[in-house]
Design a protein that fits this description.
Blueprint (H helix, E strand, L loop, with lengths): L14 H24 L6 H10 L8 H8 L3 H13 L3 E5 L7 E5 L1 H22 L4 H16 L5
Antiparallel strand pairs: 1-2
Helix pairs in contact: 1-5, 3-4
């Protein structure tokens, strides 16, 4: 009995596209980091992410809620909160209904930092998108929505 011929490998058509996405991701991170450093906010990208996440809650979350939303272990959130609390951007507050529960609140300085973060991210996005025309931006927006949602747009 003779073995069937091995299938010919198909060309890796998504390889170059995947590489472009990775290069773009690295470029976005570099530019955002530079814009953050220019504003002298004194926070890390991970702390920035935690502050942005805090802003999405209607009421102060528990550390466990933050860990779940950030998809990290609770210990990582503790370290981030420790640093942000030391710099006065967040505070730990007891839950009014359960003294054993600690909530994490943004301080006034944290709100101010969050506004600066948003401005830095907007200016970084403007820099990244500068080479695109309005029509290209619209197409890119639709493509990004599809990739983020995982559902083809109509």
């Amino acid at each position: 009995m003779t073995a069937a011929p091995a299938p010919t490998p198909s060309p890796d058509t998504d390889g170059p596209l995947a590489e472009q996405l990775l290069r773009l991701t690295r470029r976005v991170h570099r530019i955002q980091k530079r814009h953050l450093q220019q504003r002298c906010l004194g926070i890390t990208p991970a702390q920035s992410r935690l502050l942005r996440t805090l802003a999405h809650y209607d009421s102060p979350p528990r550390m466990a809620d933050l860990a779940e939303r950030l998809e990290v272990v609770p210990r990582a959130v503790t370290t981030l909160v420790d640093g942000l609390e030391t710099s006065g951007k967040v505070r730990r507050a007891p839950d009014p209904t359960n003294r054993r529960v600690i909530r994490i609140e943004l301080t006034d300085d944290g709100q101010k930092t969050l506004r600066a973060l948003r401005a830095a991210r907007r200016s970084a996005a403007e820099e990244i998108l500068a080479p695109l025309t309005d029509a290209q931006r619209e197409v890119l927006g639709g493509l990004l929505d599809t990739l983020v949602d995982g559902v083809p747009s109509c």
